Amino acid sequence: ADLLAVRQEVGEFVNVSDDLLEYANNLAIAVRPQCTKALEGVTTSGVSPRAAIWLVRLAQARAYLQARSYVNADDVRFVLPDVLRHRVLIDPLAAFQGGWTPEKVTAVVLDSVKIPN
After folding, report:
1. Are 55 and 106 in contact (CB under 8 A)?
2. What is the pLDDT along the chain (117 residues), one digit of tens a residue?
3. Which of 8, 42, 45, 85 has CA atoms 20 to 30 A from the CA of 67?
4. Please, is 86 exposed, middle or buried when counting C-beta atoms within 10 Å of its C-beta (0-12, 13-18, 19+)?
């Protein structure tokens, strides 16, 4: 019951600006090989819309734990590796020959999407 109460409190009291919602969505889209040139032949597909949802929710939780009522870009960037780690599908050949890992894909994604002001 306590966990559910905290979850509800986080959702109600930690605000996410439209810019950061768009940023989270753009990060999720950037995993798609057709959207980020550096990932062509590396990722076999993108992540689902749920990844963007959880990216925002985890960023809210991080802001809450830091006693803030708002999410900033650093929150989103901090939780992205955890959101993508088990969702990114890497082509086996790219993993073997290129040393691609979910962490490396995350770094490329973070570099390819502009941080909102």
Report:
1. no
2. 767 777 676 767 899 999 999 999 999 999 998 899 999 999 988 898 899 999 999 999 999 999 999 999 999 999 999 999 989 999 999 999 999 999 999 999 999 999 998
3. 85
4. exposed
Alpha helices by DSSP H, listed for 1-117, are 2-13, 18-30, 49-65, 73-84, 92-98, 102-112
Per DSSP, the three-state class of 72 is coil
Instruction: Please report, for residues 11, 12, 39, the alpha-carbon distance to residue 107 in angstroms, rounded to integers and kept in the order given.
Output: 28, 31, 11
Number of Cβ atoms within 10 Å of the Cβ of 104: 17
